[in-house]
Design brief:
Shape: globular
Order of helices and strands: HHHHHHHHHEEHHHHHHHHHH
Helix content: over 70%
Mean pLDDT: 85
Number of strands: 2
Number of helices: 19
Distance between the termini: 43 Å
Structural class: mainly alpha
Radius of gyration: 24 Å
Low-confidence stretches: 1-6
Largest sheet: 2 strands, antiparallel
Length: 488
Amino acid sequence: MNLNLNNNFFHLRTLVFGLFLASVFIIPILIIKFGVAYSLIYSLLPAALIYLVIVMSNPYWGLVIIFIFNYFIMGITRYIPIQGGIVMDILIMTTILGVVIQTINGKIHWVRIKSPLILLSGIWLLYCILELLNPEAISQIAWATTIRGVAGYFVLISLLTMLLFDRFKDLKWVIFAWGIFTLLAVLKAFIQKTFGFDYAETKWLNEGAWRQHIIFSGIRYFSFYTDAGNFGSGMGYSMVVFSIISFYVKQRNLKIFYMIVALSAAAAMMISGTRGALAVPFAGYALFTILSKNFKMAFVTFLALIAVFLFLKFTYIGESNSFIRRMRTAVNLNDESFLTRLDNQKKLRVYLADKPFGAGIGLGGGKAREFLPNAYLSHIPTDSWFVMLWVETGIVGLILNLLILLYIIAYSSFMVMFRIEDRELRGYITALTCGVIGIIATSYGNEVLGQFPTAFLVYMSMAFMFKSKKLDIEIRNKRLINEYNEQT
């Protein structure tokens, strides 16, 4: 059975051309009868058809589109009234359908996903599915609405990345594109800071987001991310990843580019006003001092971390700057916001004392108001990915999730230190590992591990971390072939 769609491009072009000609008559009628929105949907139909045929023929491009849209989708939703999560779900399901078709055609081999990562993400998904049996989980709608963010994306993005991004050049282009996207995010944030918010951002702030972004210490900028907390942590993530990679890439131009990205991300992290984002570079660079196996580099990195901590903890230098002043509160254990979070956790500890499996997925923090507006938990903010998991999946779920994440970091660290031979690849995997542990660390203070675009970047990073040995063999084989060709 062969479902190859490549031969259908001629028919597709004919269909698209026909739709284009028909548009001359149809679009004006749609605008008159239904408005601009319907005419816009119709005008996108040819592009949608082209997308479907391309992805069905080669789902690799489906994952490329997922990667691109993931970074910008939440910013787009401020201008176009669409559900970002639903759009991403459609892109993922379409790509999976393409994978199924090309598997039948024998072009995709599932042996590529033979990895502990798929097993671990599958175990976590299974646990979250079994949460349906939790007697405390009284809202199946809440479970169905939020399961994909808690566990579904972890499995699907890891699986698709393992299947479709199978070469070293895939890793390199993902990193390069990520760098460009980071610079665009930084540019957008500084446009907000310099020229103010545009009409869509102002509308979004007026709908309630101003409470988190216009505060006593100043304005927190969010670029096209979901919020300033996610933006600050994401920029810290990019700062760690690109600064480390810049030490290892061979091309001088790339070294300079990645260092510019890292410095730009550091500046953007500051203007986000996200205190918890500091955990990303602190945790990431701390791990780097171990993984680098370079005493001088590790020593310099360690001194830099100590210097930043002492600067924030024991000096008042730059106190007139609102961004530095807010960052300084991250190391203040008497900060009012920090104490409030601890107080909320005490209340949750009492409530969850007899609930080892939690209150049910989707029923923690503010989002519980949508499903159970009068529930006790709906009035206690979680303010943290791990506190949210604790509330929704219980202490059992929290421990399981932490063990999975720690295994992933330990596995990748072992590969970096003892198994990967190619220096450049080792640099890439080191950077991804340090970035991921930074996001894990900051997830105690922010729910970033479940938000666009950070979550997908983390899951893709994990997939590459687990493919590192395979990529190392690919590089070695290419080197041996080149040496053989030179000799002959």
